[in-house]
Amino acid sequence: MKKLLVILGLLIFTGNVKAAELPNVQLDIRDYDAIEIPAGTFIPVINTQEISTQYCSEGYKVKFIATNDMYLHETNIVPRGTEFYGYIEKINAPVIGTNAAMKIKITKMLYKDGYEVPVRGYLYTSNNNIFGGELTPPEKLLRIAHRQQRVKKTTLQIRPGNVRQMGKHTTIESGSNEIIVLTDPAMITHTLTN
Questions:
Q1: Which of 99, 135, 157, 173 lies most in the core, judged by the most C-beta atoms within 10 Å?
Q2: Do 51 and 104 meet the contact criterion of CB atoms below 8 Å apart?
Q3: E strand or H helix at 4
């Protein structure tokens, strides 16, 4: 029993000595708050590849590059050259009467130094962020004669027929200037400095 108490005492004593010898190292934590980019913010970008409903499918990966520096409170939060990545969320094939349509979702942005920030947004259009989907022209134009009673003349009226043309595929050209609109606020905790 005495041997057990002596061994236990030595372990406790040596443990306290080692703890007292270790230096107290404190890490410097930077004084930096996250910057919130509000929902509804427009970010100008350029398209890096041609995107078409003819040969792309849902889930096709897309890439865009920021064309301008974007500042918020004197801080460059989206530097020029920042890459945005996303995918084609929805594709509608062309049908009789309607052109093909697609909707592109943006999921992340990548700074030049490799830091990645998740974002939620879409490639912006005034048509609820849908590219394409327009009505096609009519297949035929019908000519209808109208007899005017007062002037005793016949007037020829041209009106569209009830059948429309086959829709065409929608394409976003490579190098086209586009706009990303954020649907949720994005928290930026990393900025680049020169």
A1: 99
A2: yes
A3: helix 2-21
Tens-digit pLDDT profile for residues 28-40 = 555 556 788 899 9
Q: What residue type is assigned to position 191 of the chain?
A: T
- Look at the chain and count its residues: 194
Query: CB–CB of 58/90 below 8 Å?
Result: yes
Q: Are 39 and 183 in contact (CB under 8 A)?
A: yes
Cα 60 to Cα 57: distance, rounded to the nearest angstrom? 6
DSSP state of 49: S
Residue 85 burial (C-beta neighbours within 10 Å; 0-12, 13-18, 19+): middle
**pLDDT above 70 (res 156):** yes
51-107 pLDDT per residue, tens: 999 999 999 999 999 999 988 878 888 999 999 999 999 999 999 989 999 999 999
Asked if residue 85 lies in contact with residue 105, where contact means CB atoms within 8 angstroms, the answer is: no
Structural domains of the chain, with CATH: 33-137+166-188 (2.40.128.260)
Backbone angles phi, psi at 139, to 5 degrees: -70, -40
Q: Which amino acid is at 161?
A: G
